[in-house]
Amino acid sequence: MKTALFVDCCIRGEASRSRKLAEAFFAHLSRDYTVKRLALMQEELPPLTAESLAQRDALLRAGRTEHPRFRYARELAAAELVVVAAPFWDLSIPALLKLYIENVSVEGITFRSTQQGLQGLCRGTDLVFLTTRGGIYEEGSEWEQGVPYLRAVGRFFGFDRFSFVAVDGLDVQGFDGEGALRDG
Asked: Which residues contact 118 (CB under 8 A, 6 or more apart)?
């Protein structure tokens, strides 16, 4: 059985349109996967501070990568498929998802620095991003920074493929947003 890590950053919970998109995705996911859901709203993700960085660096120097503070990084590195669901907020992703990324960016677990440059250490081959957006954004638009950021993060962590599904226009007057969400 393969492991899929579902990084759930659907802040509005059951009312979240991104959550509905994720439910549709997982309804069609191969039964070869066991899905582990990480609901970021229920986690206590600390921001990186001078003190927490010093603690992290000391643990890494001592080779203590099994310390509980690296749990999120170890889960991400071990998953064969990672699915991130989050709404489009402020031209990008919610701050909570950025906090998660800061917490999983751990040298020796999700990436390493070599003489040839950065090398991702995550086991999975695919990173999938599911998002819903009120407006309509073309790929490459300067107004949409979430997809390019997560694509780069995926490469940084060593995923071979990045794909995304964005359901746009959900808040555009006269557009059938619920139909677009339902039809995906």
From this structure: 111, 112, 156
Q: What is the pLDDT of residue 181?
A: 67
User: Residue 63, class by beta-carbon neighbours within 10 Å (0-12 exposed, 13-18 middle, 19+ buried)?
Assistant: exposed
**Phi, psi for residue 125 in degrees, rounded to 5:** -100, -25
Minimum mean pLDDT range among 10-19, 50-59, 146-155:
10-19
149/3 Cα distance (integer angstroms)? 24
Q: How far apart are CA 22 and CA 16, in angstroms?
A: 10
> Tokens representing 77?
């590195």
Q: What's the CA gap between 181 and 176, in Å, rounded?
A: 9
Q: How wide is the angle at C-alpha 12 spanned by C-alphas 8 and 13, nearest 5°?
A: 60
Sorted by sequence, the CB contacts under 8 Å of residue 5 that are 6+ apart come out as: 36, 38, 75, 76, 79, 81, 82, 83, 124
Provide the 3-class DSSP secondary structure of residue 163: strand
Tokens 């071990």, located at residue = 78
The rounded distance, in Å, linking the Cα atoms of 143 and 90 is 9
Full-model pTM? 0.91
